[in-house]
Design goal:
By secondary structure, chain A is of the alpha/beta class. The first copy, chain A, contains nine helices and 16 strands.
């Protein structure tokens, strides 16, 4: 897929936290195939999910995400609906067996996950960074893990707070044999996953993989088959797995768009690196550029501890917050969209997912520098 | 929206039961707007669901479906995820209060709904046409409605069996004051709805309204706020309503495509009729053409009682079923796609939703006539 039609640089840079920017080549291809996918005479949206055409799209998408994320064969990949908030209920309905589950609180999303799980199990807080205003991660050596936890939940990248685990904890070394559940919605495919430390990973697609309405679940085989009776069939992982994500009609367009994104990701290279490794390299570079600029400026500030700053979501504040509206208006004029911070945090936030090129971050830094200079 | 680019008649006719054919003008517009919606510089898939652009799309879509379906102001319209199968659990989680609910069994979908509801309440069978192999509707005067039912569930068009309620029952006249819940997935917007007889209506969008992954729920205000504790927040009707369908990230692309379809529907006319009334007239004509042809032929048969044949889904059988493969292969060659019947029923099925023009049914009848002649 190469870029067509739209002249380079014509589209603005979109820093939305999600739904978020998608690769332009993916959008171009979706537009070109809208009325006739691959000579079928149908739009992908018009295909029976049980027909051979959509079957081929779905099979390829699953194979490609397995390649991209190096998913081991003893994990299932499920295409579901309901997003991360849906999974906050679906995970405990499937995994908790009504017993104890441990939550590590690191920001807004893990707080929501913990709260929702209380409907289904004894949801404990094993650790929390609330006293640090979610600006640093609780040290794993201090986590109070329950002996009988059915699982341990982490949000490995907190989209709203901009805080990210740079590596996954080794629960075994911490004395727990519970499976680790990670909500990787907002950094999936931006870095590799150490599956030896994971029991289940879930993510809404709308940040780094595709459109809203598709949820990706990667779950280890042995965790299937333990759902509570009150788990809806459509959200029972075993039922979904046994039916290759077609127990109910899947979000076919979302799977198609994610599949195009997987192919785009597999084609990306940085030096000798490809796929997620190439993206990780590029994401390190993008994040460094932005954080280094912020750290070197008195005009802007980021409040997250340097050891756990998110590569994907960069909240920042103007020293003089009365300039916020002017900053946003100027940014829009400069073709830099959706930079307003989440209402619970305030300030600004630049989400720089896989689809954001280095040139977009360079443009943002250039604008920020000029704005600081002219408002000093 | 007018048709562009693709020459008239070039696209095949797609009789898929769902996901199903969409209006070509809607697909053309989606392709044209893919990289830049309305000068925003963003694809609809790239917009924050909380931004003003998507807010405008969503508000317009809700206003348009309210107009189309003449939804009274004391009903909420919710855009959700999970499809009809999801709603089979979500409805009893929200409405049953753990008590009794009545189900009228008329085919495959109502059987599934009844079975799933048993997880959450005392799900009774008030009537069933199983002894008639789902070929006629149980007479409302024979329904055994519970005095204390929290609701009465009907599937008003059984997609697989091809059987449809031509009018909604008046539960009050039948001695029940329970709200009527209708699954109108496969005939929504093909005919008017008598809301005075309905408490809640739900439907997956992928048959008559848009792409898979979007569920439409229309629910009377007084039915909100009674969910079971184990109802996931993302599927709690009151939570969804209180947040204007944005409690969690909605399926933004699905809402956009459904919105374009609503606009297309509002523009349709037949004589002095517009919108759903125009579609109903057109659907009556399409269905009559196909059923009249089948009834006048010894080569084809439809087994549903004439009083309750579906206008949307027309299952039919070849008298000599050894011709099935040849019939389907010839149909594909003639540009008539996805005519194979559901595996549980066999034979053929032509789904002729709103997006299927009369010319498509004429082409199908022409092919069937010629196939019968040449295989007599």
């Amino acid at each position: 897929m190469t870029q067509q039609q739209t002249p380079a640089g014509k589209r603005p840079y979109n820093f939305s936290a999600g739904p978020a920017a998608m690769p332009e080549a993916v959008l171009q291809r979706a537009a070109a195939e809208m009325l006739d996918w691959n000579g079928s005479g149908m739009s992908v949206m018009e295909m029976s999910h049980r027909g051979k055409e959509f079957g081929a799209i779905c099979t390829q998408a699953e194979a490609d995400i397995r390649t991209l994320l190096a998913v081991p064969s003893h994990f299932h990949v499920l295409f579901m609906q309901g997003g991360g908030l849906g999974e906050n209920a679906i995970v405990p309905m499937n995994l908790s067996r009504g017993k104890t589950a441990d939550f590590v609180i690191t920001g807004s999303w893990s707080i929501k996950s913990h709260k929702e799980a209380q409907r289904y199990c004894a949801a404990r807080i094993a650790a929390s960074n609330a006293d640090d205003q979610h600006t640093k991660l609780p040290d794993p050596s201090t986590w109070q893990l329950a002996k009988d936890a059915s699982y341990v939940h982490l949000c490995t990248n907190e989209t709203i707070n901009g805080i990210e685990f740079q590596q996954l904890p080794d629960l075994t070394a911490l004395g727990s044999d519970a499976p680790l559940v990670i909500d990787f919605s907002s950094h999936v495919a931006s870095r590799s996953v150490d599956w030896s430390r994971v029991g289940l990973a879930f993510g809404g697609a709308q940040k780094n993989l595709g459109p809203a309405g598709l949820t990706i679940v990667v779950v280890r085989d042995d965790l299937l088959g333990h759902a509570l009776d009150i788990c809806p069939s459509a959200f029972n992982y075993k039922t979904v797995a046994d039916n290759n994500s077609m127990y109910n009609t899947p979000p076919t367009w979302g799977i198609y768009m994610a599949g195009l994104t997987f192919q785009w990701l597999l084609q990306q290279t940085e030096g000798s690196l490809t796929g997620v490794a190439a993206m990780e390299q590029r994401n390190i570079e993008k994040a460094r550029l932005l954080y280094d600029f912020i750290d070197g400026s008195d005009f802007y500030a980021n409040r997250i501890d340097a050891s756990c700053r998110s590569r994907m979501n960069v909240p920042f504040f103007l020293a003089d917050e009365s300039r916020n509206e002017a900053f946003l208006a100027g940014a829009r004029e400069a073709g830099l969209l959706q930079l307003k911070g989440h209402k619970s945090v305030g300030g600004m936030r630049a989400s720089i997912y896989n689809a954001m090129p280095l040139a977009g971050v360079q443009a943002l830094v250039g604008y920020m520098r000029e704005f600081a200079r002219s408002h000093a």
